[in-house]
Amino acid sequence: MKFLPFFLIGILFGLGAILLIYFTNDQSQLLQETVLINQPTNQFSISYPPSLSLTGKVASMSGEIMWEGRTATQAALITGPVDLEQGTMLQTGDNGQVSAEFANAVSISMLANSQVSFTQTLPNDFVVQQTSGQITYTKLAQIPVSVRVLHLLIDQAQGQVTVIVDPDHGLITVDVLTGQVLVAFNDTNLVSHTLQITAPKRLIFNDQNRSTRLLGLR
């Protein structure tokens, strides 16, 4: 019987340890849930571009110019400058010309019957998609600038590049006026190819058979 008090003390000590562990774990889980609830979430909005994305400005324009906003279903004629946000599109008519600039990134000069979509305008990754016409891209900083044209990807390292697209015949002309570009494409067998071009050079890319021809610029 003299061991009974020690036995009861051992039981009470064990129950206390179990309760301590239970309440400690419960408080830790509650703290984790509170942190998760209070953490900010990145919400996608079709109406507004990402907060870090760059916004371009129209510097000059003449003739017929059309613009399509992020939530628009088709392009509309504009008579004055508009903001060029990620997800918007700019198009020139038969007599249209427009120049635009994304500060510390790239300036764009479009001739008649040209179209470009601003796919991504983030400070660390600037991507546009050109579907027609003649557009000159001039890099203004070290931000990576990429131009997608049909099945050709043009990464502009530096300098000035003019891209001419003939969608009816599937021909793309890339004039590297200054600086350097890296072009990439998959051939008809889905084999990847890259080609580095230093100015002054002209690349002619046949989108139908995925062939390239490199010429000098006079």
What is the name of the CATH class of the largest domain? Mainly Beta
CATH topology of the largest domain: Jelly Rolls
Q: What order do the SSEs take from the amino end to the carboxyl end, as H and E?
A: HEEEEEEEEEEEEEEE
Regions with little confidence, pLDDT below 50 for 5+ residues: 19-23, 33-42
Rg over CA atoms: 29 Å
Helix content: 10-25%
Oligomer: single chain
Looking at the overall shape, the CATH architecture of the largest domain is: Sandwich
The shape, in one word, is: globular
Integer average pLDDT: 84
Structurally, how many domains make up the residues? 2
**How many angstroms separate the termini?**
110 Å
State the helix count.
Answer: 1
Can you tag this structure with a few keywords?
1 helix, 15-stranded mixed beta sheet, Jelly Rolls, alpha+beta, 218 residues, 16% helix
Structure at a glance:
The protein has about 220 residues and is of the alpha+beta class.
Description of the structure:
The protein is an alpha+beta fold and 218 residues long. It has two domains: 1-32; 56-216, Jelly Rolls. The chain is 16% helix and 50% strand. The chain contains one helix and 15 strands; from the N terminus they run H-E-E-E-E-E-E-E-E-E-E-E-E-E-E-E. The chain has one helix at residues 4-38; strands at residues 56-62, 65-68, 76-78, 83-84, 89-92, 97-102, 106-110, 115-122, 125-139, 145-149, 152-166, 171-186, 192-198, 201-206, 211-216. The chain has a 15-stranded mixed β-sheet that branches. The longest helix is centred in the N-terminal third of the chain and has 35 residues, at 4-38. The radius of gyration is 29 Å and the shape is globular. The model is unreliable at 19-23 and 33-42 (pLDDT under 50).
